[in-house]
Amino acid sequence: MRKFFGTDGIRGRANIYPMVSDFALKLGKAIATIFKNGNRKHKIVIGKDTRISGYMFENAIVSGICSVGVDAVLLGVLPTPAIAFITKSLRADAGVVISASHNPYYDNGIKFFGPDGYKLNDELELEIEKLIEKDNFDLSPSNIGKAYRIETAIGRYVEYVKSTFDRDIDLKGLKIVIDCANGATYKVAPMAISELGADVIVINDKPNGFNINDGCGAVNPEKLQGEVIKNNADLGISFDGDGDRVIFVDEKGEVVDGDYIMGICANYMNKQGLLNNSTVVATVMSNIGFENSLKREGIKIIRSQVGDRYVLEEMLKGGYNLGGEQSGHIIFSDYNTTGDGLISALQLLKVLVKSGETLNRIKKFIEVYPQKLKNLPVDEKVPLEKLSKLKNVIDEIENELQGDGRVLVRYSGTENKLRIMVEAIYEDKIDMYIDRICEVAIEDINKNKSKAE
């Protein structure tokens, strides 16, 4: 079992173990050791988002990589999917991302891509952990790598992203508000979308190391909703801190989440014969109404557990080319190896331009059930199978729903939170159900803390 890696790399509070510079130094040594193969010169690319601790971790990881004889290529601030793309484009041995995605500035994380641009599998992550704990790296005065920065990474990525947008159309005539979350998309997103012809209004594009995701971005769409209405814009686009997820706001100020984005794009792709096996991979969090709406269009839904790595696993297993999460992590595998907010945004914009419809109108065929999500902070993630009272109350509520809704309770893979999701046809009952679950969950977790293994 992995000790440090979670569902999306290693993540935690900066300057609190394991997110400390000493540990990052060992991580750099470990990733370089694993991907060294033969006598040729090796290189690993490193990119980051805009949080203040990124500088500290970048320097530590670079030191570790160079100390075992591998070159470190610094990309600077770039979205996570751009780092995956550049890893492949530069034929690097691996890619390193320093980011905590949608978390606040005081958190940070480190994750890796292999030479193919895909996230590392569990076995490789376990191998990295073993090397770190062993801490016996092959260091030699005559075998030290160099570190250098490349200035072309942003341009390479923007040009590639634009190439996924059909050449016979453009975005002229569209007024678009872009919320960059003071994060990694603050340069690339406005550049790509304006170069395709849109009239762009940009908000939250002045990162200072502390304001990433702070009341902005894909997790906090309220300001974007207001700006779309105030500017009489056609739509708004909001990215998270590392640019691997996206949500939209339509011309009426309504949020258009990942379910809608996947649904609209899947329906278009299916009609064009471009949706592999007429199938979309979604997670257990996706709305049941989204699934039913796509079924009516002849599209099958396969569900994975939460996390874009599990979505991708199902996609690769079945040969599917579209999958994602309600939160806005969407994978168009024809174009990239991971969730890519900017590419996803352009795919939806392409459908809008070709259809001539507004976003509010084109989303109407997807009829979602009312759904609410509550994040309950917990001190300790007591295994759910130990929480018998919680299980009983979930069973009771699902019996009361009689198939007209569902309950999903799980721990976050990246934070100390219990996520409680309730869907029901009748919205007025949802808050009551969530309150019942929260009350029992708190009691059951507190009671079982000392029994947790």
From TrEMBL:
Task: List, for all copies, the residue spans of the domain called Alpha-D-phosphohexomutase alpha/beta/alpha.
Answer: 3-137, 156-253, 257-364
Pfam families per UniProt: PGM_PMM_I, PGM_PMM_II, PGM_PMM_III, PGM_PMM_IV
Active-site residues annotated for this sequence: S101 (phosphoserine intermediate)
Q: Which GO terms describe its cellular component?
A: cytosol
Positions of transmembrane segments = none
What EC number(s) has UniProt assigned to this enzyme? 5.4.2.10
User: Which top EC class is named for this enzyme in its record?
Assistant: isomerase
Residue positions of the PTM Phosphoserine? S101
Gene Ontology biological process terms in this record? carbohydrate metabolic process; peptidoglycan biosynthetic process; UDP-N-acetylglucosamine biosynthetic process
The coenzyme or cofactor needed here is: Mg(2+)
| Gene3D superfamilies the record matches | Alpha-D-Glucose-1,6-Bisphosphate, subunit A, domain 3 (3.40.120.10), Alpha-D-phosphohexomutase, C-terminal domain (3.30.310.50)
GO MF annotation terms: magnesium ion binding; phosphoglucosamine mutase activity; phosphomannomutase activity
Q: Which reaction does it catalyse?
A: alpha-D-glucosamine 1-phosphate = D-glucosamine 6-phosphate
Keywords, comma-separated and alphabetical: Isomerase, Magnesium, Metal-binding, Phosphoprotein
- Outline what the protein does: Catalyzes the conversion of glucosamine-6-phosphate to glucosamine-1-phosphate.
Q: What family, per the record?
A: Belongs to the phosphohexose mutase family.
Protein's recorded name: Phosphoglucosamine mutase
